């Protein structure tokens, strides 16, 4: 497929055969609304990932859970995510980005209801696995979809809306978990042992909103061009760009990129390999540094260290506020400082926080001032980690791959993310039992140092560069020259 294969694109003047449709809202507002609707999948992602930390404290009132059982319930969603992201990439390349967003919303709804109705630990594990399929699909397709809609100068902040939605979901889950865990009197609506069911049922609300909102989403113009539908792609692009932004020029770049065909062999070729190492490596380190493990097990760790359940859940709520603020700052900074520079400047704060936590827990459970240092360390850790490597993860992954293999490549990025999330989720409590809390935080600190070195050596700067320009740098061997 070549740009001149499309007669309607052969003559520059032919792009102007119909006037841009402006309507009552601006083109930028249309992109923003589409990003918000798709971002509801991120809200569900964060909510379903975060709510399990509070639910684990009360599920045992309904049926017993061993240490292995708790890890299985927490990790089952991650196992489902592996399947979801593996399926979503090829499906999005074949059937489109928008249908995959809709399918994720439907699976979110089924998984939320199934989790709330679970009659045993096995049923709950299965329902969480179904939720994981939706989470994996959403984490694969939504960043790609938003990146393909957004103009280059605003792509960073718009894609980071997905991460903002994720951490907002985590914050909401922390608040609901605290309110429904028996610490707010009348707000514990279902009584002892029933509160965790309502926690899961509430996840169906944004799922229904996402299903309703899909009707207003356009298909990605880059996907349409890749499928040979140049005229339809141009119509969508006109609606998403101001005329002053020269959408005709952008369309020609898109058609040039769409002229290349790609398959799994292309993805593993020498040309694409630097992007594959960067995307999959960043996804790996985002989990090996312990982010989701800390978010999932923080209430359990604090409760075991002598903090009351209420204090542990309030700290989890404080962590939700911290990561939301961190992501808001990331949305502001990512298009100003750049993706690479943001990670290199902020990630050292995570390293300091982890060493602090290792020191605080060195002699066992912290006492008096040590407990406050533990809380401060946890808050600083999530603030810096979620504001750097986790904020840029989905954005960088959605930017660096060629159009012809973008869906498949993002599947591998998300497979890397969820594989290591599954590994860390399954072994965190066991590692704590072997190394202790202090040793576990020290291990995460050393891994985070390795992550900083990897980012310095293997991640290019993509700020203010079009997706097509990034793709061209892979072809001419300058991918890692952009610092």
Automatic annotation (TrEMBL):
Pfam families: Sugar_tr (PF00083). Residues 34-463 form the Major facilitator superfamily (MFS) profile domain. Its main location: membrane. The keyword Transport applies. SUPFAM superfamilies: MFS general substrate transporter. The chain crosses the membrane at residues 29-47, 67-88, 100-123, 129-146, 158-178, 198-217, 275-299, 311-334, 341-362, 374-397, 418-435, 441-459. Gene3D superfamilies: MFS general substrate transporter like domains. It is a multi-pass membrane protein. It is found in: Membrane. Belongs to the major facilitator superfamily. Sugar transporter (TC 2.A.1.1) family. NCBIfam families: SP. This is Sugar porter family MFS transporter. It comes from Candidatus Kirkpatrickella diaphorinae.
């Amino acid at each position: 497929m070549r740009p001149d294969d499309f007669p309607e694109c052969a003559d520059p003047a032919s792009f102007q055969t119909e006037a841009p449709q402006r309507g009552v809202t601006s083109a930028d507002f249309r992109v923003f609304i589409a990003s918000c609707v798709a971002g509801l999948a991120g809200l569900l992602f964060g909510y379903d990932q975060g709510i399990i930390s509070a639910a684990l404290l009360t599920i045992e009132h309904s049926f017993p859970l061993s240490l292995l059982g708790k890890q299985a319930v927490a990790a089952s969603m991650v196992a489902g995510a592996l399947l979801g992201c593996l399926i979503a990439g090829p499906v999005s390349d074949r059937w489109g980005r928008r249908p995959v967003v809709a399918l994720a919303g439907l699976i979110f709804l089924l998984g939320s209801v199934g989790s709330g109705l679970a009659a045993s630990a096995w049923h709950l594990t299965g329902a969480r696995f179904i939720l994981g399929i939706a989470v994996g699909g959403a984490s694969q397709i939504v960043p790609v979809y938003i990146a393909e809609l957004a103009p280059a100068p605003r792509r960073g902040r718009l894609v980071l809306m997905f991460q903002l939605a994720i951490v907002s979901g985590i914050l909401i889950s922390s608040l609901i978990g605290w309110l429904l865990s028996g610490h707010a009197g009348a707000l514990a609506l279902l009584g002892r042992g029933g509160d965790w069911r309502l926690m899961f049922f509430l996840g169906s609300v944004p799922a229904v909103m996402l299903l309703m909102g899909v009707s207003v989403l356009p298909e990605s113009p880059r996907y349409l061009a890749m499928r040979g539908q140049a005229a339809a792609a141009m119509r969508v692009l006109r609606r998403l760009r101001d005329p002053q932004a020269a959408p005709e020029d952008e369309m020609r770049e898109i058609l040039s990129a769409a002229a290349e065909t790609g398959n799994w062999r292309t993805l593993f070729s020498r040309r694409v390999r630097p992007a594959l190492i960067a995307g999959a490596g960043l996804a790996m380190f985002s989990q090996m540094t312990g982010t989701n493990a800390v978010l999932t097990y923080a209430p359990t760790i604090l409760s075991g260290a002598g903090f009351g359940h209420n204090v542990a859940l309030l700290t989890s709520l404080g962590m939700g506020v911290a990561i939301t603020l961190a992501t808001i700052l990331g949305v502001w900074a990512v298009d100003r400082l750049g993706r690479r520079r943001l990670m290199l400047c902020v990630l050292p704060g995570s390293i300091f926080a982890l060493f602090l936590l290792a020191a605080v827990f060195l002699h066992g459970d912290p006492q008096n001032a040590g407990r406050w240092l533990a809380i401060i360390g946890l808050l600083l850790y999530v603030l810096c980690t979620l504001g750097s490597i986790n904020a840029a993860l989905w954005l960088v992954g959605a930017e660096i791959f060629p159009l012809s293999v973008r869906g498949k490549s993002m599947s591998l990025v998300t497979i890397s993310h969820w594989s290591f999330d599954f590994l860390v989720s399954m072994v965190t409590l066991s590692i704590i039992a072997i190394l202790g809390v202090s040793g576990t935080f020290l291990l995460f600190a050393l891994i985070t140092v390795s992550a900083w070195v990897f980012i310095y050596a293997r991640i290019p700067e993509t700020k203010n560069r079009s997706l097509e320009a990034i793709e061209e740098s892979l072809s001419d061997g300058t991918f890692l020259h952009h610092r």
